[in-house]
Automatic annotation (TrEMBL), chain A:
Family according to the record: Belongs to the bacterial solute-binding protein 1 family.
Name of the featured protein: Sugar ABC transporter substrate-binding protein
This protein's record includes keyword Transport: yes
Lineage: Bacteria, Bacillati, Actinomycetota, Actinomycetes, Kitasatosporales
Top-level taxon of the source organism: Bacteria
GO MF annotation: an example: maltose binding
CDD domains registered for this protein in UniProt: PBP2_TMBP_like
Species of the source: Streptomyces liliifuscus
Pfam families with a match to the protein in the record: SBP_bac_1
TrEMBL record, chain B:
Name of the featured protein: Sugar ABC transporter permease
Compartments where found: Cell membrane
Family: Belongs to the binding-protein-dependent transport system permease family.
Organism, scientific name: Streptomyces liliifuscus
InterPro entries, sorted: ABC_transporter_permease, MetI-like, MetI-like_sf
PROSITE patterns: ABC_TM1 (PS50928)
């Protein structure tokens, strides 16, 4: 078919063809592959009502997959005992920020949404949550709520979220392996050097048994399990504003040195170098690892026949701390059912929900006054975990995700250079972390 | 031109029957009606492309010139900073280099293998249909699902591959398939080749079957060897199909994302970050849609240029 359009016809057809092809490629990838008006919500801090409204309203709620069991248990119990009904949507953890961002842009947020507590400052500063200061303060146990979550959700002196699920980093140790290694199963490590000795003693058993394990290609795992050792020594990891890193301190370097020693001497279970966080909690339950930091939310998921003990994460020379992670939850700024949404939040923090739902599932309660309850009393490990909340930290930084959770961010580079490298780049890498925080 | 077209379609030997009362269409009216019909046929596609490609493209263009945080919407003009910031990122040039390297490796390996497979199963002989199906089957799987499957296979802690190699005594320690930049790249290439070789084989098979049998017979009668026949007949006549495969493969590889996002997350140590991963990172990790859109526009420009060049090559091949 000859051209009749002259010399320009060729080019025009070529460009048109290319655009059409790109259009197709945009739809099918082949071989390689607002300032939010606080419209509704609980504005003005919400009516000073500690219980909210239960009138049969239909509410929507989002949570991330990482805390699905806890959210589902709470929602199920609430729906069974209230007229209001919550429809829970679980979103893949990695897609959560994108989903919230897109929904915020189109004013399509649900009535309630939980968030990884480290991302909360981003959402509060962007106006995605309703101000619930008055409602929170009206709770009779307001001062007993996990303050690290409350602080993370406080922006310009206003409160926007309450604790939803708490996930603490703690040491799990295999008592059976401790006995085999001639260690006292009732004496977990109280310092990083003891942890080192005990891990090496267990590792010496051989036959596929390893001393410890960690997620060496997972920035989130690093902050969750390494930072408590720095806090335990009384040091900080970030400045108060969250714009500068202090991850090259002497204490921090001692922590990295210990982990590097484990890597160099093959004390760590195979796969640590590649572990992106997807399967890092699946190694300990196999019963072949001596002692390692784990999320407290996995305690209830451990095999029944695994004899394990729980201990706080220690610092180089003693002390104890934990990363108070998990999810905080708030009412979206655009919700038209703020009173009903608050009814769920207030109920979820009450004695009955905290004890009969949260504690019953071996999870950490969100209130310090309930740390000892009928379920934890039956399992001293839960008391150990619950009591750690007051020693714990939740770091505050607006740029937390892009700096520490991003698999291509500067913190993971620091981590890997410090532990799999020779540790000579820590100071330089710390500057890169600070640059990202103040970006 | 209109008149010519009308003339072609105008009746020349029939006079209208006398009882006919409806006026006969003039050539111009008929042309207008054909034009309207053509437009009606094209309209659904035009609407689809406008809504799902052109409008989003315009929005991306606007974003690329704006300060547009994911959580707060447009905050005014931010040009050309979005473009310069994107290029200034420490990951930008390594990502460009890696994407190009990946594209070259995947394209060469895939096309060679697909051609070999197509040649293997082109003749109708016992078992040919079975093997065509077997080679094509992986293409029916979604890329994300295939990536997850291989991630499971490669995992040193939960995957079977490492254990099998240890069991066979081929290695002493668990194998880290994704642990170094080279092994991560090659492991990903293996996945892509496994998944797409059958798809490209099918395209080339159609091309092979379009070559007239008489041409081969004439060549054999002239005493041409198999190699000569392949070089002088098969390859030249297969050029349009090969060009199509090349176009699809290069475009797809330059847009690689899913497999790296699932298998390596850009690691180890940022050595397998692709350009599209950078776009995703800017948008959903750094929450900066402006810079992400600027990167997208850059990628679009490069793809447009490449496709124009490839189309031109394809046309030349057709004309020759």
């Amino acid at each position: 078919m000859g051209s009749t359009a002259g010399p320009l016809g060729h080019t025009r057809r070529l460009v048109t063809g290319a655009v059409a092809l790109l259009a197709a490629a945009s739809l099918v990838t082949a071989c390689g592959s607002g300032e939010d008006d606080s419209g509704g919500g609980g504005g003005k801090g919400g009516a000073v009502d500690a219980t909210g409204t239960d009138d049969g309203a239909k509410l929507t709620m989002w949570t991330r997959a990482a805390t699905r069991p806890q959210s589902e248990a709470l929602v199920k119990a609430y729906n069974a005992s209230h007229k209001n009904e919550i429809e829970l949507t679980v979103i893949p953890t990695d897609d959560y920020q994108a989903k919230v961002g897109a929904a915020a842009g189109s004013k399509d947020l649900p009535d309630l949404f939980a968030s990884d507590v480290v991302f909360v400052p981003n959402y509060t500063s962007s106006g995605l949550f309703a101000d619930i200061t008055g409602r929170v303060d009206a709770l009779p146990f307001a001062d007993k709520l996990a303050q690290s979550h409350i602080k993370a959700g406080t922006y310009e002196d206003k409160k926007y979220v309450v604790p939803h699920t708490l996930d603490l980093s703690v040491l799990f140790y295999n008592k059976e392996l401790y006995k085999q290694a001639k260690l006292d199963p009732e004496k977990p490590p109280t310092s990083l050097s003891e942890w080192d000795q005990q891990a090496r003693a267990v590792d010496a058993l051989g036959k596929g048994v390893n001393g410890t394990f960690f997620g060496g290609n997972c920035g989130g795992c690093g902050v969750f399990t390494w930072w408590p050792s720095i806090w335990a020594a009384g040091d900080e990891v970030l400045n108060k504003e969250g714009t500068e890193a202090e991850l090259s301190s002497d204490t921090a370097k001692k922590v990295y040195d210990t982990y590097r020693g484990w890597v160099d001497d093959d004390i760590v279970a195979p796969g640590a170098r590649d572990e992106t966080g997807t399967t890092w909690t699946g190694v300990f339950p196999k019963g072949k690892v001596g002692v390692m930091p784990m999320p407290s939310t996995t305690l209830g998921l451990m095999p029944k026949d695994l004899d394990l003990g729980v201990a706080p994460i220690p610092g180089p020379d003693g002390g104890k701390s934990t990363f108070v992670g998990g999810d905080a939850i708030g009412i979206s700024a655009t919700s038209k059912s703020a009173d009903q949404a608050w009814n769920f939040l207030a109920w979820s923090l009450g004695d009955k929900a905290q004890v009969d739902v949260v504690a019953a599932n071996k999870d950490v309660v969100a209130r310090t006054d309930l740390a000892s309850n009928k379920y934890s009393d039956a399992d001293p490990r839960l008391v150990t975990i619950n009591e750690l909340v007051t020693d714990g930290h939740t770091p505050y930084a607006l740029k937390f995700g892009q700096t520490f959770n991003d698999p291509n961010g500067p913190w993971l580079t620091l981590m890997r250079n410090a532990v799999f490298g020779d540790g000579s780049k820590i100071d330089k890498d710390n500057e890169a972390v600070s640059a990202s925080l103040s970006d | 031109m209109q008149v010519k077209a009308a003339d072609r379609t105008a009746p020349t030997h029939r006079s209208p029957p006398e009882h006919r009362t409806r006026p006969r269409r003039t050539p111009t009216r008929r042309w207008t009606s054909r034009k309207a019909q053509g437009l009606a046929y094209a309209a659904p596609t035009a609407v689809f492309v406008t809504v799902f490609f052109l409008l989003p493209l315009l929005l991306v263009g606007q974003m690329s010139l704006s300060d547009w945080p994911l959580l707060a919407g447009d905050r005014g003009v931010n040009a050309p900073e979005n473009y310069t910031d994107a290029a200034d990122s420490t990951l930008f040039w390594p990502a460009v280099r890696f994407t190009l390297l990946y594209t070259v490796i995947v394209t060469v390996v895939l096309l060679v293998l697909a051609l070999l497979l197509a040649l293997l199963v082109q003749e109708f002989r016992p078992g040919a249909g079975f093997f065509r199906t077997v080679y094509f089957l992986p293409s029916a799987l979604g890329l994300a699902s295939a990536s997850l499957l291989f991630w499971g296979l490669y995992s040193p802690t939960t995957g079977p591959l490492s254990s099998i190699l240890e069991g066979l005594g081929l290695v002493d320690d668990p194998v880290s398939f994704l642990g170094t930049s080279t092994s991560a790249l090659l492991s990903t290439v293996f996945l892509i080749v496994w998944k797409f070789a059958g798809f490209y084989m099918l395209i080339l098979l159609v091309g092979l079957q379009r070559i007239p049998h008489e041409v081969y017979e004439a060549a054999r009668m002239d005493g041409a060897s198999r190699g000569q026949i392949f070089r002088s007949i098969t390859l030249p006549l297969l050029r349009p199909s090969l060009a199509l495969c090349l176009l699809l493969c290069v475009t797809g590889s330059l847009l690689a994302f899913d497999q790296f996002f699932i298998l390596t997350k850009g690691g180890p140590d940022n050595t397998t970050v692709t350009v599209v991963q950078l776009i995703y990172r800017e948008a959903f990790q750094r929450l900066d849609l402006g810079t992400a859109a600027a990167l997208s526009i850059m990628v679009l420009a490069v793809l447009l240029l490449l496709n124009v060049l490839q189309f031109r090559g394809l046309r030349r091949a057709d004309e020759s």
